[in-house]
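Can anyone check this?
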Amino acid sequence: MKLLTFAHRGEAQAFLTAGHYKPVDFLFEGLLKSEHSFLLITGEGVQTTSEKTIAVLTRFNDEIDEIYNIGVAGSLTEKLKKDDLLWIRTSFAHHAERLEFKSFTSETVTATHDCMTAFTRVLLPQERKKLSLFADLVDRELWAVASAAHLFKKPFQSLKIISDDTRSDHEDICKFVKEEAPRFSEKLLQEFKRKEGLTSVELHAPATQFIVDKDFYFTVSQERKLFSTLEGLRLRGTSEKELFSDPFVLALKEQELLPKERTRQLLLFLTEKLNPISKIIRENIEESLASLKEARIQTTYDNDFEEDWLNLSVRIQSTRDLERVKNALKIFSYEDFKKILNGEFDV
């Protein structure tokens, strides 16, 4: 079941009407439920959004499997105009004079725009110019929702509509957004329904052969990642026929691998095709782990680069093996490994 989050009821009103939601008897007002999803009105700002989202996820964790943040946002670039509908790629946050350390990437692999969540309202042109160095649009809640989703290990997506562009009179923007809320909400609903209405099997018939192929094994989440990645590549002009006839993919079937490992390598190949920076990050990580591998220490890490954990596995059969491992660990820098995951490396 989905959890849809909105800052204000005005942004949610089209969803409330279409979804036949009923109030949930909970710790606070603003939580509703329909046959297919929860809907939460968080209020404006990072703190209240974080508190309410975490409270709902704590109580209904077993029922909620993905989270959406939907609503209005302001443009930080002249490329974006009022009424533009955007699916968000990465969520950043800016607090006072500093950028928050953590960022969160959504499940929408086709998204190309990043959103900055500001802890206070951004009204002055110089403030917007500063934030535009990091993101294309600004809101007050997304980072809090994404952070909560990350905490509970739930996938999240975010749909935003641009309420104003860089030429707008920001002194009256709050009043303007309130007046325009019904229209914004309807446009958001139609775009949400359009995206949700796409059926993966219909769009990706060639890919379904890989799902039923005995040489591959896909979990539900891997199946979803396969279809979403293929959709992103399709939008960039790469057909599935071209991808599945690639020498690397064809060779996967010939290798003596378990079906789960073939699936992992296929998804890795497609992800790096869609997002070449992933390949660069992985190459930098592998380089940072060289001393461990030379000592025959097996390493695994988060393939999505969302978490900075590192698993080490080693077999020791002698004092010499132990010394080899100790020396490798002295050379290895976990801090450098974490920096790579956070994008701090030379391209």
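Reply from J.R.: I decoded it. The first helix runs from residue 9 to 19.
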